[in-house]
Design a protein that fits this description.
Blueprint (H helix, E strand, L loop, with lengths): L28 E4 L3 H11 L3 E6 L3 E5 L7 E4 L19 E5 L2 H13 L4 E6 L3 E7 L5 E7 L18 E2 L2 H6 L3
Parallel strand pairs: 1-4, 5-8
Antiparallel strand pairs: 2-3, 3-4, 6-7, 6-9, 7-8
Amino acid sequence: MSDVSKPEPTPHSGLASRPIDAGVRIGHVHLKVADLDRALAFYCGVLGFELTQCYGSQAAFISAGGYHHHIGLNTWESKGGPPPPRGTTGLFHLAVLYPTRAALADALKRLIAARVALDGASDHGVSEALYLRDPDGNGVELYWDRAEKDWPRTPEGHLAMDTRHLDLEDLLHAAA
């Protein structure tokens, strides 16, 4: 009889035994919106995304840098509808990755000019992030990542992300 006992299952024991390919990226997100024109005014007019295609009056596709679309906006199931109530499942937020701190600072300037309120602003050590809501109540995170060599680590080398206050004045100074 063996003295080795079988390991106890963990809540996450059903996770994949082999990680996904490191080159995989999230390609795009589709948002259900109540008013397509209002959503376009926010995502294109305030944040600066470019309209790449409309699908009649019910959907639009927007992007940064000429990609076919990073965000799809549609009213197929939601025209005139209210945001989902708190306490229900669904999208927590979509995250828009900016290439530099200066680009994130420009996004902050756009939000200030459009009088869009922030829900929060955090320095996570690995990134700096702005949190807000779009006109339909969807959570939006605008962020930039620090270089991986600058990420905080524990003495054992594990990632040590945190949530600290982000100095918005200092961020604005980074605007190009």
